[in-house]
From TrEMBL:
The DUF302 domain, residue ranges: 81-144
Organism: Piscinibacter sakaiensis (Ideonella sakaiensis)
Domain of life (superkingdom): Bacteria
PANTHER family per the UniProt record, alphabetical: SLR5037 PROTEIN
Protein name: DUF302 domain-containing protein
Amino acid sequence: MVTSTSTTPVPFTLGGRRRKPRASGRGVVRCHRLEYHCGNTRKFTLQDLAFGKTTSLTHDEAIARVTADLAKEGFGVLTEIDVAATMKKKLGLEMPPYRILGACNPQFAQRALEAEPQIGALLPCNVVVRTNDTGATVVEVMDPGAVLGLVGRPEITLIAAEVRSRLERVLRGV
């Protein structure tokens, strides 16, 4: 959210090009699908930005299966963040297992970066494997359509749809 004391739209850069915002309603400046709210709050739910499922696999089994299925779909895991271990080390807090896998398909990443060099700020696709309150394992995936759709470019939307279909196949495997 961007707050401002001025009601005058301010030009900004999106996608490497300078944009002139258009007024699209009270307190909202819109350029493509990206919205800046002045004094208003736009609420996103997790369902808007990610999708997932609960699995009968253990946490470690789910990580192994997700990693293997990502590889079958052309993704590598560039990063693996053990959130529970980090919280323990940095804050002394205990929490159930929680890992974030940064998944990247180089072919899709190359196409997206070629179309929009600044898109790297939205990459890679995060896949979360966590244990919930009841002890069940949950696998959640960033929705590339929702996140990459912020760019508002048709060629990026097509790439995001292809990536989503591959991630959905990975999710079906767990």
